[in-house]
Amino acid sequence: MKILIVHYHRFELWHAPTWLRQRLQEAYPNFIVDQLQSYDRVPEEIVDTDVFIGWSLRPEQFKIATKLKWIHSPAAAVHQLMYPELINSNVVLTNSSGVHGPVVAEHALAVVLALAKRLPQAMHYQAKKIWAQELMWSEHPRPREIAGATALVVGMGGIGLEFATRAKALGMKVISIRENPNKGTGPADAIYGPEQIDELLPQADFVLLCTPVTPATTSIINQDRLNKMKFGAYLINVARGPLVDDAALVEALQQKRIAGAALDVFDEEPLPPSSPYWLLDNVLITPHTAAVTEQLWERHYDLIVENLNRFLAGKPLLNEVDKRRGY
For residue 145, how far is the Cα from the chain centroid? Predict the structure, then answer.
């Protein structure tokens, strides 16, 4: 059996480390484990590959991968793989949502606290050597407690579940939207279907986006939805940029129709200098670092090995993607 690893990215942490191939080869000495440092040789190497580890495989490359049985994406989002050839095939697709859940949930909770306590504004005044106690109290929104505040979690996958657990421990009320509410509330106080988002938005003090990108969720936060949010509410996006209508959000923030936003992901990355987000004092921007941790690839390795053992034993794989739904 041949395993091909092609997971290249300009950001060092997203790039698969060379030890991944070495450790897999040691763990499975009877397999061929190859790792490419670029996408140049994918057409030659994919033709006899059984297992592909990577987040990008083009339709024309997939067509010639006649031995391919399983694709594992080290990313949580797999929308870039949702083309008809793969969707309609028998190739199993898994993602890494569980790998990213705990650390991204920590990031989301960190920005909830930062926004509630207005830490970005405090740092702004600090840089100007201004003792801003009176200013921060008189500005909108004022610093606030998160205990008793309501968080609306849009998407109850690995990130949403982990966030809800942490938020509940700090006294927040958590209401959640998931595609299939029959799966249960988990740690949330209540669970609802996607069709109820419009009636839930006015209840939320913090709206957390951690849902996959699908045709149904693209621009799920648009002008109409922003208008339904509380005057003092915050929007947090740790999922993917296309979930948000940027023009509508910029306008809402400029007009201060909502309190602010914390954005870790954007439709275009790196965020260009021309983006109006940079000029807004009610936006907390992080450069897609919510999932950054030194433990990332150790977690990836553990998941890959667990699923390889399941694959060899003919057992169901963890994090299998429903290719029709896209997550």
Answer: 26
Residues 111 and 212 in one domain: yes
Is the confidence at residue 97, as pLDDT, over 90? no
Residues 93 and 111 in one domain: no
Same domain flag for 34 and 161: no
Structural domains in the chain (count): 2
The percent of residues above 90 in pLDDT, for the chain, comes to: 93
pLDDT tens-digit map of 231-288: 999 999 999 999 999 999 999 999 999 999 999 999 999 999 999 999 999 999 999 9
Comparing CA positions, the residue from 145, 96, 93, 83 lying closest to residue 117 is: 145
Give yes or no: residues 274 and 136 share one domain.
yes
Distance CA 231, CA 196 (A): 20
pTM of the model: 0.93
- Could you report the per-residue pLDDT of 208-229, keeping only the tens digit for each? 999 999 999 999 999 999 999 9
Q: Are β-strands 234-237 and 206-209 bridged in parallel, bridged antiparallel, or unpaired?
A: parallel
Structural domain boundaries enclosing 8: 2-98+293-313
Please give the positions annotated as active site: 240, 269, 288
Residue 271 to residues 15, 79, 102, 264: CA-CA distances in angstroms? 20, 20, 25, 10
* 194-205 average pLDDT score: 98
Return the amino acid letter for 226. Answer: L
